[in-house]
Amino acid sequence: MEATSKPFERYLILYIPWVLSILLRGSPVLSYIVAWLGSFFIFFICYSGWLKPLPNDRLIGSQLMRPIFLVQIIFIGYMACSSIFYFCNLLGYLDNSGLATFTIDYDNLDLTAQCQRYYVLGHAAFATGMILSMKYPIKQKYKVNTDKLANILLMIAIIFLPLSYVAGHTSGLIQFYFQFSSLSFIAGTLALAFAIPLNKVFNTAFCLFLYLTNFYQALTSGFKEPIIVSVLVLGIFLYPTYKRIVITTFIPALLLLFMYLPTYNHIFRANAWGDSVNSDDAYKLALDAALNNESQEDTNLGFLVYRLSEVSMFTEYIKSTPQYIDYYGFDLVKQAIIAIVPRIFWPGKPITEELVMERVYNSGVIRRGSSVSAKPAYVVDGYLSGGPLGVFVALFIYGAAVQLISQKAEQLFGGYILGTALVFAGLFQIFWRGLSFEFLLNSVFWSFITMLILSKVLRIQNILEDI
User: Fold this and answer.
1) What residue ranges do the domains of the chain occupy?
2) Which residues pair with 142 in a beta bridge?
């Protein structure tokens, strides 16, 4: 039975932390703390059901891939909650230099508090858009034979693995490489989670092989996110069947990854990207360094303070906009629309990377000509477009889009398993992180087209049947 919506005025409670943090802006420390804790208050309001009851068509543990759970926790956690380490470092609490005195940069502290106020405003807007759009149970158009789900998932994993390879080695199709490889990985992981309790030996062995292959590729990618996602997704899929095992093994495993990954990744990149060492050797060197605690304290601290959160870069944008550089208005949105057009139809299309980096250079975040890439986060683009109003509008649209696309996927693919857990998580994983307007809109648009095509193919193959 569909939950009745609460009066719209109730949504104003989400903005109380933002208002309080503004009233306390005369004290940057208090303002930051109120804004930072405000995100946890918003989490509580969302999960309490006070604004709108949580979906009751499935048990909570069996719907964790839905936006209100996974996307909100990862996206908001990365955007708004991870800045605490940078804040503590500004106050000297994470300083390990051994100096007897520590001077606080109050200007930077004030900018950080200002950033956090934008974060909590963005969180409130995101939650508003998401919860207003949330409508369960979803009226299904198609159904899938649940007895065949394990084999269907395995088939999808196998088919999209070579498709991802072809896309990755074909000019103009590189963006589909990420979609197809992610879809193959999610399908294989889901198939593994289905096969284990069903005691399907062949399926389990083959899916385990696929999973370990993907995990090794993640280890040798030079990026931390794929490794964490590999463990996280498997844990979420296994949780409904093996709750105790997942809690006692996967949570400690994720904590260990956060402890050792910064060192591992730092050593791997230094060898594989800087010294022309092949990936296999770089992987062994990095793993040995991480396990033997080589420079782990300094590397982990640097990761927590400067890499886990992008708040330090956000402060640079606030310094320059709007004081020296005016708000961009709809310019970034126009550039995002341009980015959607395939280069095959517009050979002279501006290079997206260059469009994005232009505002990075203009803001002085990095110097022009630098080899470092520092693309602004989604919330930063919202701010650059129109200040606080830009943040509100951008994050409201983000929350609504995440929810509506997830619901459309469930409608097209016969429910949660194929819809949200597979297709939405596989094709729209960019929502977990949130990039610049241009990269996000381009990825979401073509992922949506891919979703429609995949649905049509599955219907032609009678995998999806009309209700």
Assistant:
1) 8-466
2) 466
> Closest Cα to residue 288, out of 298, 280, 278, 276?
280
Q: How many CB atoms lie within 10 A of CB 266?
A: 22
Question: Phi, psi (5° rounding) for residue 337?
Answer: -70, -40
Dist. CA 389–CA 370, nearest whole Å: 32
Task: List, for residues 245-287, the tens digit of each pLDDT value.
Answer: 999 999 899 888 887 887 787 787 777 766 667 777 777 777 7
Residues 6+ apart with CB under 8 A from 134: 52, 55, 68, 403, 407
Q: What is the largest CA-CA distance in the chain?
A: 72
- Asked if residue 122 lies in contact with residue 80, where contact means CB atoms within 8 angstroms, the answer is yes
Per-residue pLDDT band for 1 (boundaries 50, 70, 90) equals very low
- Give me the mean pLDDT over the 94-115 stretch: 77
Give me the pLDDT at residue 274, please: 64
Residue 360: which of 398, 394, 395, 328 has the closest Cα? 328
End-to-end Cα, the chain, rounded Å: 19
On whether the CB atoms of residues 86 and 306 are closer than 8 A, the answer is yes
Look up residue 336 and give its two tokens.
């995002």
